[in-house]
Amino acid sequence: MTEVHMKTIPIADVSSIKNELNKYKKGKKLEIPRFNQLARMGYIGRLIITPLDPEDPACQSYLVHVQEPQGLAAHFIELDEDLLDAILILDGEQAMAIAAIMQQGVQDRAKWHEELNERDFYFSSFYRPKERAE
Q1: CA-to-CA distance for 31 and 82, rounded, in angstroms?
Q2: Burial class (CB in 10 A: 0-12, 13-18, 19+), 131
Q3: Half-sphere exposure of 69 (CA within 13 A, CB side)
Q4: For 5-45, how does the pLDDT look when each residue is reduced to its tens digit (9 = 90+)?
Q5: Chain segment 82-94, per-residue pLDDT in tens
Q6: pLDDT of res. 5
Q7: Core vs surface per residue 39-71: b (16+ CB within 10 A) or e
């Protein structure tokens, strides 16, 4: 029978570990172009946002899962390759801004569908008022 030896990793610099942990707790701010790409994906409903650690009140960051655009959106919306199906740790301020954009996208799509349901295509296609002779 072979014996398994557990290897221990000495912690040389506790402060660097704490700094790394704090980076995750605060999240990362995105540059403007990347934020806009994420916002577009959020607007069309292709993001999932969840708190990184909901049980830790000091943790202000959020996990953001970027889903690939589908259908027509895939032909028009440009997304950096490294953002395709990516999971990011985003700071709370930018995550809340993107959440508001996501909500606006849902509201706009709902309004569009309501208006589409009420739209009368027949009359716009077949009814042409006669021109009046003056």
Answers
A1: 14
A2: exposed
A3: 20
A4: 555 555 667 777 777 777 778 888 999 999 999 999 999 99
A5: 999 999 999 999 9
A6: 53
A7: bbbbbbebbebeebeeeeeebbbbbbebeebee
Burial class, 38, CB count within 10 angstroms (exposed 0-12 / middle 13-18 / buried 19+):
buried
Could you tell me the pTM of the whole model?
0.77
Record the tokens describing residue 11, joined without a space: 């912690």
Q: Which two tokens stand for residue 63?
A: 């996990």
Dump pLDDT digits (tens) for 47-101: 999 999 999 888 889 999 999 999 999 999 999 999 999 999 999 999 999 999 9
d(CA 134, CA 126): 24
